[in-house]
Every structure is written in structure tokens, then in C-alpha cells.
Amino acid sequence: MIMLWFEKLTMALYSSPAIALTAAFLWGILSVLLSPCHLASIPLIVGFLDGQKDLNTRKAFKLSAFFTLGILVMMAIIGLITGLLGRMLGNIGTWVEPAVGVVFLFMAFFIADIFKMPTFLSGGLNHKPRKGIWAALSLGFLLGIALGPCSFAFMAPILGIVFSAAGTKLVFALSLVLAYIIGHCLVIILAGTFAGAVQTYLHWTSNSKGTKIIRIICGVLIFVAGLYLILKRYI
Q1: Are 162 and 14 in contact (CB under 8 A)?
Q2: Confidence (pLDDT) at 128
Q3: Alpha carbon distance 195, 63 (integer Å)
């Protein structure tokens, strides 16, 4: 069933501009929901936000947006560097994903509050929004490194059309990439914002029982994602 949807979306990319842009947008959404690598971004941002003090919906949206921005910036840097080196876009070597997986394992303990999170990743624990934004960006940068190869693999059908159409239909080509990015980012930002809205509605603080349970669940999911990145080549 999943492969059938991918085939239909791929065919839709070659249809009229409106249908192609819609397909690219849906492809961006599915790139998060159907990829173990990308799906790790949701428990990571939710767990990160649940550790913030004085969290509200607006702050959750802002931190989620900067977290997503960090992912996109790092992916763009990886794509640019690998492209200039003449390698396949996103091909940063086989050792990077296991290395990031190990970082994820340690981060899972921090998110679950088993260990205390280092100051540079503790976000808004000191009530300074700038540090919260920097922490969100840092997490995004880290995840962007791990997502490089996986992201460009998902984007392959879109990039094929973009490269072929860039010479004659540059605006359309760029619009396809933008539609994909919007769909991809929307899932992560909505997940983080929704988590912040729920926490605000229930009047949870960073020490509330519900918050601790969510952090433990997110920690387990991130731990599993770390194991996946480490063992991916053997699966």
C-alpha cells in the first residue's frame, strides 16, 4: 500500500503544476511520517519542549520552528558540500549515522531525565529565550547531520524533476522544493506546537507527572532511533 502511494505521488510530480506542487507537499509530509530517521525528530522536539519552563504555545511554536530551521540549514550545507565534491547529494559517509546514533542514545537519557542535560542543551531552563533558541537550533543541526542521506533519498524524485526543469522552468523547480520543505517542516512544527499547547492547557510544568511521563516516552523513542541509526546497515 505504501509503495502504491509513492508510485502515485511520483507520477503526480509529472502532472500539471498545481498537481505536482500538491504531490511535493504531500511527499514532504510522508518523508517525516514514513521514515524512521525523520520520525525521530518528533519525540526529540517534544521531549526537548517538555523540559522547558514557562512554556506556552507561542514559545513552543518558535522553538519548534528554529529546531526545524536547524535541520534545514544543516541539510543544505551537507547537500552543497557533497555536491561540490562530486558525490551523491547527502552522501556524507557510512560512519556519520552510527556516530549520530550514539549521540542519540546519550540524548535519550537526558530527554528522559535519567541524567541531567548539559547547559548548552538545556534550552530555557535558565529562562533566557536566546539560549532556548540556540539549543533548539543545535538539536536541529545535530539531527540534520543524521538526516542527510535519508532526506536526499526521499527527495530523489523531486530533485530529478528540479534538475531537468531548472534550465527552462526555474520558478516551478524552486516551487517544488519549497512545497516539499513546507510539508516536511509543517509536521515537525505542528507536533512541537501541539505539545506546547497541551502542556499550557493542562497547566503542566517541567516537574509535572504528565510531563515526566511524556519525557520518558520520548526518551525511549529517541533511544530506539539511535539504535536504528547504529544498526541500519545491518538490517
Answers
A1: no
A2: 43
A3: 12
Question: What is the spatial distance between Cα 214 and Cα 127, in angstroms, rounded to a whole number?
Answer: 21
Residue with cell 523547480: 173
Of the candidates 178, 159, 147, which has an alpha carbon nearest to the alpha carbon of residue 32?
Answer: 147
pLDDT tier for residue 126 given thresholds of 50, 70 and 90? very low
> Can you tell me the distance from the alpha carbon of 228 to that of 225, in angstroms, rounded to the nearest whole number?
5
Distance CA(146)–CA(100), nearest Å, equals 6
Sign of CA dihedral 132, 136, 137, 141: positive
Contact present, 54 and 127 (Cβ < 8 Å):
yes
Q: Quickly list H helices, the chain.
A: 2-12, 17-33, 36-39, 41-50, 57-84, 96-111, 129-154, 156-165, 170-201, 209-231
**4 vs 53: CA distance, rounded Å:** 44
Amino acid of residue 114: I
Mean per-residue pLDDT for 46-51? 78
Task: State residue 3's pLDDT score.
Answer: 66
- 154 CB contacts (<8 Å, ≥6 apart)? 27, 31, 35, 38
* Sign of the CA dihedral running 206, 207, 208, 214: positive
152 to 54, 100, 155: CA distances (angstroms): 37, 17, 5
Under 8 Å between Cβ of 47 and 64? no
CB-based contact 31:184 (threshold 8 Å): yes
> Cell 551523491 sits at which residue?
88
C-alpha cell at 124: 530555557
